[in-house]
Amino acid sequence: MTSVGGASATTIGILGAGAMGAGIAQVAVTHGHPVILVDTSPAVVANARSGISKALDREVEKGRTTAEARTSSLERLTAVAVPAGADLLALASAGLVIEAIIEDLRAKRDVFLRLEAVLPESTVLASNTSSLSITAIASGCRRPERVVGIHFFNPVPLMPLVEIVPGLATEASVTTAARSLVDGWQKTTVLAKDTPGFIVNRLARPFYGESLRIYEEGVADQATIDWAMREIGRFRMGPFELMDLIGNDINFAVTQSVFEAFFYDPRYRPSLTQKRHVEAGLLGRKSGQGYYDYRAGAVRPEPTKNSELGQRIVDRVVAMLINEAAEALFMGLATAEDLDLAMTQGVNYPKGLLRWADEIGVSTVHRRLQALQEEYGEDRYRPSPLLRRMSQEGRRFYHA
Ligand SMILES: NC(=O)c1ccc[n+]([C@@H]2O[C@H](COP(=O)([O-])OP(=O)(O)OC[C@H]3O[C@@H](n4cnc5c(N)ncnc54)[C@H](O)[C@@H]3O)[C@@H](O)[C@H]2O)c1
């Protein structure tokens, strides 16, 4: 196959110059690649170019790069507007094209077909989709074997993790080439099966879902749950402040899409409380109110700093997170190492979930889940068969 593997001279084509496309372009030019960045909107193209230029200026000010390196990075960037439906010949010289347009399967299939019409057979086609199946995007292509998922996180220049996602038809050499190229961009890559939410967006669901459930049951208020997860669980942010930062509309949409894509598995069932917040326009920081009030003069509610209650909250949410990671390992989503790397690098978890399971004790985690399942009688709390087996056999996820 292909010319992408590691060569810094490979031209990178990027389709979609929004938040993600522009971020990917910035990273690629700073790593020596000529980049052709394309969007349908001239205003977005202009905005992306000036955004990248300003970001590189800041890098120079902070002493992280030189003025010369900044200038040559910008010289490597070509940003052009191509009207919707027009041919994509502007990308013909690319060895890898990364698609980062709107999250819509029909729109993505359409641009992949139009890319195939102008690109040589050796060009690798990648999608930055967060929630669509790579296999489904590739299925409309003449050569689905050259299509792969390269899932960056926002903001791209700052977030170290990238999930590499082969579809069912993807050639192994395409996956390897994509991974080694992105590894060369000082990113941490993990390999994930093409399943809903890939690694991070799937494994993180219980962080929000179980916290919302605890809140709905009246076990504790949002301030207490956030306090417990931060102070006792050592997470960087509590679930409610994080949902307010992400936006309740976005967070709800991710949960709903994972729930639907897993054929309504109750483990991923969205929360009515969150849905009502979205309906009420309580989206979080961006709307001024979410689970907290961000308007001027608002007083932040005080948590109940009861360490016994806090520990119970953390134990319950962490057991659910570990169960999700164990089930993902059981179903071959990724290796234990990659599952753990994804959560520490992608969402700054204090520890990898499987390493955390070893630390708590696999059988303790299993017992906590069994107790929850018994108490609620809900399938949501069913322990992963892997966790049950490991608990019975006294096994750990890691040897050391
Ligand atoms: N924002 C995130 O946090 C995030 C994280 C990871 C992955 N993603 C994924 O990355 C993709 C882009 O997300 P974003 O947040 O940058 O969106 P965005 O809305 O900021 O940008 C999308 C851009 O695509 C352009 N566009 C739409 N149709 C096009 C077409 N046919 N040809 C060329 N350009 C077209 C739009 O004009 C827009 O500028 C989506 O698939 C999204 O799911 C987003």
What does this structure look like?
The protein is α/β, with parallel strands linked by helices. The protein folds into two domains: 12-194, Rossmann fold; 201-400, Orthogonal Bundle (N-(1-d-carboxylethyl)-l-norvaline Dehydrogenase, domain 2), CATH 1.10.1040. The chain is 49% helix and 10% strand. It has 17 helices and eight strands. It has helices at 19-30, 42-61, 67-75, 105-118, 134-138, 172-183, 200-203, 205-216, 222-232, 239-246, 248-261, 272-279, 307-330, 336-346, 353-360, 362-376, 385-393; strands at residues 12-15, 35-39, 77-81, 96-99, 124-127, 147-152, 161-166, 188-191. An eight-stranded mixed beta sheet has the order 3-2-1-4-5-6-7-8, with helices on both faces. Helix 6 links the parallel strand 7 (161-166) and strand 8. The longest helix is centred in the C-terminal third of the chain and has 24 residues, at 307-330. The radius of gyration is 22 Å and the shape is globular.
Question: Topology as H/E string?
Answer: EHEHHEEHEHEEHEHHHHHHHHHHH
For the residues shown, what is the average pLDDT?
96
Q: What percentage of residues falls in helices of 4 or more residues?
A: 40-55%
> What's the total count of β strands?
8
How many domain modules? Answer: 2
N-to-C span:
39 Å
Reported for the largest beta sheet, the result is:
8 strands, mixed
Q: Count every helix, treating DSSP H or I runs of 4 or more residues as helices.
A: 17
Strand pairing plus helix content: what structural class?
alpha/beta
What is the CATH domain class of the largest domain? Mainly Alpha
Q: What CATH architecture label of the largest domain applies?
A: Orthogonal Bundle
Low-confidence stretches: none
Tell me which ligands are bound: nicotinamide-adenine-dinucleotide
Radius of gyration: 22 Å
User: What name does the CATH topology of the largest domain carry?
Assistant: N-(1-d-carboxylethyl)-l-norvaline Dehydrogenase, domain 2
Strand content: 5-15%
